[in-house]
Amino acid sequence: MPIIRKVIKAGPNSFAVTLPKTWLELLERETGKKITEVALEINGKITITPIIEKQSRVSSEKQM
Predict the structure, then answer these.
(1) 22, containing H or E segment
(2) Is 23 helix (H, G, I), strand (E, B) or coil?
(3) Contact of 16 with 7, CB cutoff 8 Å
(4) In b/e form, how buried is each residue of 19-37, taking b as 16+ CB within 10 angstroms?
(5) Nearest CA to 50 among 32, 18, 27, 29?
(6) What pLDDT sits at residue 52?
(7) SS3 (DSSP) at 41
(8) pTM
(9) Contact between 8 and 16 (Cβ < 8 Å)
(10) How far apart are CA 27 and CA 37, in angstroms?
């Protein structure tokens, strides 16, 4: 069963769909990474996929 979210006006020329804070917190707990962006795929339906923050090169190099 799909989860229904409302489309809201987010400015003069934009609309938005909000996500519950708990959904992002759950994904962040499961992955151990912060989610700051999502990817939208539009092909007859809209699919929202979280973009999981990758470890930066700078912090990777410091660990070597």
Answers:
(1) helix 21-31
(2) helix
(3) yes
(4) eeeeeeeeeeeeeeeebee
(5) 27
(6) 84
(7) strand
(8) 0.63
(9) yes
(10) 13
